[in-house]
Amino acid sequence: MSEKLFSQQLLAWFDQHGRKNLPWQQPATPYRVWLSEVMLQQTQVSTVIPYFQRFVVRFPDIRSLAEASTDEVLQYWAGLGYYARGRNLHKAAVIMAQQHNAAIPENFDALLALPGIGRSTAGAIMALAFQHRYPILDGNVKRVLCRFTAEPDWPGQKNIETALWQLAESLLPERRINAYIQAQMDLGATVCTRSKPDCHCCPLQTNCLGRQTGKPEHYPVRKKKPALPERHCRWLIYRQSEKILLEKRPEKGIWGGMWSFPEINIDMPMDAILARHAVDDMIDLTPIRHTFTHFRLQIIPLLIDINQHDQIETNDNQQWVTITDSLSLALPAPVNKLIQKLNRGVT
DNA sequence: AAATCGGGGCA
DNA sequence: TGCCCAGATTT
């Protein structure tokens, strides 16, 4: 499809369904656009509205904001969260009072140089306040574009983000830039939502590749988490009659103080294990994987049946218990699972 | 419990 | 330049 069609469809939808009566849209002065855009970073419209109203009554312009103390500004921010935004807002007001005649600079680079204003917010101010042709790429727009193109990669990836900025720029209309930017945000907020997008109401539905996949909510695709480092260990499951040998783990480290099977380094050779005692049988059981926050542990259990005459040296941290008794001890989940399996005779 | 979000800050 | 964080909400 042509870039022109995209903006035409979006603008036609905006005329019918867009939001035109938000507090910062009447009037959409540069100061009010700036304030609202900063408040809207990481905070949704319905939350922002009452804060915005109170804020502009107390600080109606850049000068009054710049002359206030940071503490008072933060009082009016209290409850919005992300207080660095409030501090940066005040800092920027002071800078604008000193360097820009207490006005919002009508210049992209000058905006970008102010604290709390990045590329997207600078673009929003240029478009919404000054009707200049700049794109934005906030969370809503990113989602709309990722769906529209069925972007297969995570949009946080540098090259994808670069491509999305380029796409956003290429789609800009020649006229009505402020309505168009507002339309993008509105579509993302009300139709092309993160979950359960309302594709049937979407002006872009016929050309949307995400919708054609049948799973628009799959876009944007999530960041693939880095593979967790994997560690290995071996558990020795000594079994004699109906009893098993458990060992209290050290207080520090994983599963501190809980009861587990004697654990040995995975590198210990089998003959070294064998040398410890005469055994009836040694059976490798199915490995167990257990995932922690920072690594994955693969446990190789070795079932060792001991006959009556074998002697296993135990220490103070170890005890022979029946399976029934073991279940009343503090057992890590994988130990519990393993005991249940033994109980059922599964290997 | 995990993902999300725009900008700041740091190597 | 590329990565991670803050800090709160949403799913």
UniProtKB/TrEMBL annotation:
Reactions it catalyzes: Hydrolyzes free adenine bases from 7,8-dihydro-8-oxoguanine:adenine mismatched double-stranded DNA, leaving an apurinic site
Obligatory cofactor(s): [4Fe-4S] cluster
Keyword Nucleus in annotation: no
HhH-GPD domain: residues covered: 39-190
GO biological process: base-excision repair; mismatch repair
Domain of life: Bacteria
Entry's cofactor comment: Binds 1 [4Fe-4S] cluster.
InterPro entries named among the record's database cross-references: A/G_AdeGlyc_MutY, DNA_glycosylase, Endonuclease-III-like_CS2, HhH-GPD_domain, HhH_base_excis_C, HhH_motif, MIG/MutY, MutY_C
Pfam short name (any one): NUDIX_4
GO molecular function, one term: oxidized purine DNA binding
EC number: 3.2.2.31
Keywords: 4Fe-4S, DNA damage, DNA repair, Glycosidase, Hydrolase, Iron, Iron-sulfur, Metal-binding
Enzyme class: hydrolase
Record bears the keyword Nucleotide-binding: no
Family in the record: Belongs to the Nth/MutY family.
Main function: Adenine glycosylase active on G-A mispairs. MutY also corrects error-prone DNA synthesis past GO lesions which are due to the oxidatively damaged form of guanine: 7,8-dihydro-8-oxoguanine (8-oxo-dGTP).
Protein name: Adenine DNA glycosylase
